[in-house]
Design a protein that fits this description.
Length: 272
């Protein structure tokens, strides 16, 4: 039986051969079903390649994901605000990652319209009046649907968590920034309680765009207390399994938030 040997060089993520070594593959002429040695060798070959690929490619993907998540979170919590310029080298230093995953993360955020071009630079995007209006329309419909589905599918444990969130968040009404973060967690919990992964995915995109608003409607005087009462009504409708009431309560909540934001923007524009 004729034997053919093929040597495959496998490099580690930095391009060095020594660390990973070589994979030696023996391919034997004849019927592979009759030759157990060939089957074992092929299995070893596949394992060798998986280890090599996993060591490099997974590290690269992890770096890209981490950089993307870090920048997105910084935008979401207001560290980077609309109009802020994002410099690749500065971000690499801030987050302690190399410039390559930072560059790829910035490109990804630009394709998602979270960053915009300003000459040769990238800045955090901002929403026009029309874009903001469109966003609230979509948010109202999708979150209303989430509340209706939550009223149908939410478990007793999920309802308990929502109730505890409302009570805990009442203590934050004097801190708009902290209340805004808690508000995002509350709405996310309702999304998850819908038990519809496709809806959750779409709402993630909507709330990601909400981060492009420079201020929170919860900063308006008295809005925090009112919003907590609205949250309470939403949760109680979900707890009762009243789909229509839950959907309406959440849509009304979004509508009031939109009106409040329009008033805030109109006041701020007077001083510009």
């Amino acid at each position: 039986m004729r034997r053919v040997e093929r040597i495959i060089k496998v490099k580690d993520p930095r391009g060095h051969i020594g660390k990973m070594g070589f994979c030696h593959v023996l391919r034997l002429a004849g019927n592979p079903k009759r030759d157990n040695r060939l089957i074992k060798i092929q299995a070893a070959h596949r394992l060798c390649l998986r280890r090599a690929e996993g060591s490099g490619m997974n590290q690269t993907r992890t770096g890209q994901t981490d950089a993307y998540s870090l920048i997105l979170e910084a935008i979401d919590i207001g560290v980077f605000k609309p109009g802020d310029r994002l410099v690749e080298s500065d971000l690499a230093d801030r987050f302690g990652v190399s410039r390559t995953p930072i560059r790829e993360a910035l490109q990804r955020l630009e394709t998602q319209n979270l960053l915009a071009r300003d000459g040769r630079s990238l800045i955090v995007a901002s929403l026009s009046h029309n874009q903001m209006s469109e966003l609230y329309v979509v948010r109202s419909e999708l979150e209303g649907l989430a509340a209706r589905l939550a009223a149908q599918h939410a478990s007793a444990e999920e309802i308990l968590v929502l109730r505890e969130m409302v009570e805990a968040d009442r203590k934050l009404t004097d801190d708009p920034a902290a209340l805004s973060r808690a508000n995002r967690r509350f709405h996310k919990q309702i999304h998850l309680a819908s038990h519809n992964r496709f809806l959750v995915r779409q709402l993630d995109l909507v709330h990601r765009s909400m981060a492009l608003m420079a201020t929170t409607s919860l900063a308006a005087e008295g809005r925090g207390e009112v919003a907590m009462e609205e949250h309470h009504s939403i949760v109680e409708a979900i707890a009762k399994g009243d789909q229509e009431a839950a959907g309406k309560a959440l849509r009304d909540h979004i509508s009031v938030a939109f009106v409040t934001r329009l008033k805030l923007d109109s006041v701020s524009s007077e001083f510009e």
